[in-house]
Design a protein that fits this description.
single chain; alpha/beta; Rossmann fold; Dehydroquinate synthase-like, alpha domain; 2 domains
């Protein structure tokens, strides 16, 4: 087990890289003893709830802390209706603000659970135990919480930082191929932002041990950025690269009921936003290489199906909007400083036209 502490505003958050699952239980049990907390709840979904059964290949059944609540798996359940059920359960299982929530799952669980923890009794403590590649490198880290409003991504949310994030790559052995791809969409973003690894390394198979270093580098990169800008008003906006178009694709997918993972949408968003922000032959060359990597990593069929509709209508809901423009992050290139570029919704919509032509 190795760990480091990050200061997010007034909150200290521990990032802990575990080498075996028993370290997860040991840390949580030790925390409960040291903090004199006697009320705790595990939040998981219908996928990760299986880890607590006798027949699971990954066994968390000995993590017997307090109560457990299981939410339905899937982005379509990340909404205010699910949150209401979670909070109603909290009111029965955790009576005091000293209670602890432990989120065991992917991005949907950490988003839902973090949001519920932030609003229940005006804020209780929580720990994230990410079980997917996407949540290990992105969703479980950084304190952004939230749920969708109708089909609009993450319109209701807060900044509420976890006490700890316990990362164990062993969970990745349970991931289906498509969930690996979802995490690789965020890794593609980090590779372009300068996290210290190349797109080629992302495409080299699905070995949990081999991905350990990519996870560590991604986590170190993100926590450094978030510590400088916890509430996303400056440099942290660079971590939204690919997400303006990516979130619009996800919202349209929810509307027309076409399954797409977050990473698939973000990867397509990266390609489109690179096209919109081209400013040199060198950037054009990088975009061509990135497009080649995209086709190695992803099946473009879900994005093509979504593009038969009109995802551009969701752009104006982007949280980076300012006046009549959206601030698109510009990737730091060839030593350039991090900056944003204001584009209108119509200008950004041209990115969908580019995707229809080249995916």
């Amino acid at each position: 087990m190795t760990s480091f502490t990050v200061n997010f505003k007034s909150v200290q958050s521990q990032i802990i890289h575990c080498t075996e699952s028993i370290e997860i239980r040991s840390f949580i049990e030790r925390y409960l003893i040291n903090s004199s907390t006697d009320q705790a709840t595990v939040l998981c979904d219908t996928n990760t709830g299986l880890f607590f059964s006798e027949n699971s290949g990954i066994n968390l059944k000995e993590l017997q802390i307090g109560s457990r609540f299981i939410v339905p798996a899937g982005e379509e359940h990340k909404n205010i209706f699910t949150i209401t059920k979670v909070l109603e359960f909290f009111s029965q299982s955790m009576k005091t603000r000293d209670s602890l929530l432990v989120n065991v799952g992917g991005g949907v669980v950490s988003d839902l659970g973090g949001f519920a923890a932030s609003v229940y009794k005006r804020g209780i403590r929580y720990i994230n135990v990410p079980t997917t590649l996407l949540s290990m490198v992105d969703a479980a880290i950084g304190g952004k919480t939230g749920v969708n409003l109708g089909h609009i991504k993450n319109q209701i949310g807060t900044f509420h930082f976890p006490l700890a994030v316990l990362i164990w790559p062993g969970f990745l052995k349970t991931l289906p191929e498509r969930e690996w791809g979802s995490g690789k969409g965020e890794l593609l973003k980090y590779s372009l932002l300068g996290a210290g690894f190349s797109p080629e390394e992302i495409a080299a198979g699905n070995d949990p041990d081999a991905f350990g270093q990519l996870i560590r580098k991604s986590v170190a990169f993100k926590t450094k950025i978030v510590a400088m800008d916890p509430e996303d008003s400056g440099i942290r906006m660079i971590l939204n690269f690919g997400h303006t178009i990516g979130h619009a694709l996800e919202s349209e997918a929810l509307r027309i009921n076409i399954p797409i993972t977050h990473g698939e949408a973000v990867a397509a968003g990266i390609i489109a936003e690179m096209h919109l922000l081209q400013h040199s032959e060198l950037m054009e060359d990088l975009m061509e290489k990135t497009l080649h990597t995209y086709h190695r990593l992803f099946d473009p069929a879900p994005v093509r199906n979504i593009l038969e509709g009109d995802p551009s209508e969701w752009i104006l809901h982007d949280k980076k909007g300012k006046g009549n423009t959206i601030l698109l992050p510009v990737i730091p290139f060839n030593g350039s400083s991090i900056q944003t570029c204001p584009l209108t919704a119509d200008q950004i919509a041209e990115g969908f036209t580019f995707l229809r032509r080249y995916l």
